[in-house]
Amino acid sequence: MRLLIDLGNTRLKWATLAQDDLRAGGVFAHGQEPLEAALRAEWSELRGIEAVLVASVVAPAREEELDAFVRTRFGRHADFVRTPAAALGLRNAYAEPARLGVDRFLALAALHAERKRAQVLVSVGTALTIDALDAGGHHHGGLILASPRLMREAVLGRTARVDALGGRWNDMPDNTVDAVVAGSLYAALGAIERFAAVAADRLGAQPAVVLTGGGAEELAPLLPQAERAHDLVLRGLARWAAEQDARDRP
Q1: Range(s) within the chain of domains with CATH label 3.30.420.40
Q2: Are 84 and 111 in contact (CB under 8 A)?
Q3: Which residues 6+ apart lie within 8 Å of 107 measured at CB?
Q4: Which of 6, 103, 131, 231 is flagged as catalytic?
Q5: What pLDDT band is residue 64 in, cutting at 50, 70 and 90?
Q6: Residue 171 annotated to the active site
Q7: Which fold has domain 117-230?
Q8: What is the value of pTM for the model shown?
Q9: Which CATH superfamily is domain 2-80 in?
Q10: What tens digit of pLDDT does each residue of 101-148 get?
């Protein structure tokens, strides 16, 4: 059985993979706290782990912390997946492939494996990423910007007398708290809609827009045409594991 880990800037999400059976495990916010206590509780019942695959976007020191715990708990090193130029039916647009976040690559690969079409993937985490993918599996590039939550934190951290606590969506805000919340969502929506229009010209087809990530909930009602997808990074890791198995067979 494999342990699959999506180690993001804010959250750690994990699942187990036995044969082709991907089973959800858990998710928790790790922030700047040591990982050991949380992982000890999360994985107290796990047995029979033969390999650990990790998609990580955190600093090397945090990866080393995870690897140290994995060695102690399961007696093996964590295998940190790095973004390739091409794999899983996907071709990376970046001239320096490793600079594309592995979470973006794996999520796109999982999405493409399930639906081969023109599509724009919008992932809402600490950052908001928007990527274009054609029906042939060619990644055409994408955007990185602050997520709505991060935008609001930036406004609150750099301005006096502005407080967004209790704010809500309002398409024509008439108070400060709603103005901050709606402003962050308008900015995200504008980026998504503009990028999808550019992608339609580049791809020669109107792309499907797919929302994923822990912060997607607040954008979903404002993008009624968008589809929802869950656990794409973990599903991409499962496909990476399957490809490893195929390469290892004689």
Answers
A1: 2-80, 117-230
A2: no
A3: 121, 123, 212, 232, 233, 236
A4: 103
A5: very high
A6: no
A7: Nucleotidyltransferase; domain 5 (3.30.420)
A8: 0.93
A9: ATPase, nucleotide binding domain (3.30.420.40)
A10: 999 999 999 999 999 999 999 999 999 999 999 999 999 999 999 999
